[in-house]
Amino acid sequence: MIRKIFSRPFTQQEAISQEAIDAATEVLKTGRLHRYNTIENELSQVSLLEQEYANYQGSRYCLACTSCGYALSISLKAAGLESGDYVLTNSYTLAPVPGAISNAGGRAIFVEINENLVLDLDDLAQKATSSGARFLLLSHMRGHIVDMNELMRIVQEKNLILIEDCAHTMGAKWGKKKSGNFGLAACFSTQTYKHLNSGEGGLITSDNAVFIARAIVLSGSYMFYERHGAAPEAEVFSDIRLQTPNYSGRMDNLRAAILRPQLISLEENIKRWNKRYQIVEQKLQKVTGVVLPERPDEERYVGSSFQFRIPGISHTKAGKFIEANKQLGVEIKWFGSDEPTGFTSNHKSWKYLEYQDLENSDKILSGLFDLRLPLTFSLDDCSLLSDIISECVQEYQSTK
């Protein structure tokens, strides 16, 4: 029996560095928090962040927004989504993804997932044909990347417009290519629980000049589009600036100032997350009754959270399993509940959408559990929480 109780909070992130605090203080001292409040030819903190993130991602263009959900919504609009258009997306995702589709005027069609928590590509191909959808909003949910080679074959065959939701895969790769560099555009999150932390925020990257020009105007650039750090030439905007509405959702200089120093540390932090992930993985893969998603050799993941399944667990026993872990200090989320809890929900609770039969996904989600692995956890912490989960699984098994 595990006698220790886990005492670390699962929502506590690392402190903002002194360098980032100093950068934010400098912005506050100027009073110029708005991204376009610059002097002469000065580049704002937001413009500098856009340049630096475009360089990191290996993209030509970058746009900083208020949130990843907002970035997804205006990306769909900038890609040409019209009211009532169908958008294919994952059945396993978080509420801002179908929310962004709805906000952009689209209609979500959920694609089944497989046991590795990624898109069922056969179902994708079938639904792309049957629906006539032009758009695929691919959510790399919880950092799991589908076979991108096969997915791109389907995208090209079905003539789909691909937008990648990389909220959980900032810094991840498929093969030698960074997550987010496969489709027309990618959207990243800087919400507190993601890989960069500004409380809330989003980034869009793309190599397509017309797309990003539309997104920049949609984000609320007014006629200040030339003050963006990673944007096309002014002539690209000549017609777009007059034909595109303003949906104000700009990032401000304070958040950008906090983010820029964090970007420098991202690659080192990816290594730190993955060490923690691998400790939990090594322990839980030995536990009878626990099934872990396979991680392909082509995938370089970022292990900032951990998922495992207990196939066949009932709703009642799932609730007891979560409570048993909670009593020992381990906070686990469950994607099988019909009722949303905190950030965790599934398609059954999104009542503004038409009901869709997702039998395979529902079966997988009914036994799917999830936990954060913040960098405030030490390696020993990760070992202890793994032991607690293992003990609770064994208790569940013994009550069958």
The overall number of domains is 2
- Spans with pLDDT under 50 lasting ≥5 residues? none
Helix content: 25-40%
Can you tell me the overall shape? Answer: globular
Radius of gyration equals 21 Å
At the fourth level of CATH, the homologous superfamily of the largest domain is Type I PLP-dependent aspartate aminotransferase-like (Major domain)
**Which strand order do you get reading across the main beta sheet?**
1-9-8-5-4-2-3
Structural class: alpha/beta
Q: Tell me the total number of β-strands.
A: 13
CATH third-tier fold name of the largest domain: Aspartate Aminotransferase, domain 2
User: Mean pLDDT across all residues, rounded?
Assistant: 96
- Main β sheet profile: 7 strands, mixed
Proper CATH architecture of the largest domain: 3-Layer(aba) Sandwich
Enumerate how many helices there are, as a single number: 12
Order of helices and strands: HHEHEHEHEHEEEEEHHHEEHEHEH
Beta-strand fraction estimate: 5-15%
Euclidean distance between termini CA atoms: 19 Å
CATH class placement of the largest domain? Alpha Beta
3D architecture notes:
This protein has 400 residues and is α/β, with parallel strands linked by helices. The protein folds into two domains: 18-260, 3-Layer(aba) Sandwich (Aspartate Aminotransferase, domain 2), CATH 3.40.640.10; 266-398, Alpha-Beta Complex (Aspartate Aminotransferase, domain 1), CATH 3.90.1150.10. The protein has helices at residues 18-30, 45-57, 68-78, 96-103, 121-131, 148-157, 209-218, 237-243, 253-284, 315-327, 359-365, 379-398, and strands spanning 61-65, 86-90, 107-111, 135-139, 161-165, 173-174, 177-178, 185-189, 202-206, 299-300, 305-309, 333-334, 368-372. A seven-stranded mixed sheet has the order 1-9-8-5-4-2-3, with helices on both faces. A three-stranded antiparallel sheet has the order 7-6-10, with no helix packed on it. Helix 10 crosses helix 12.
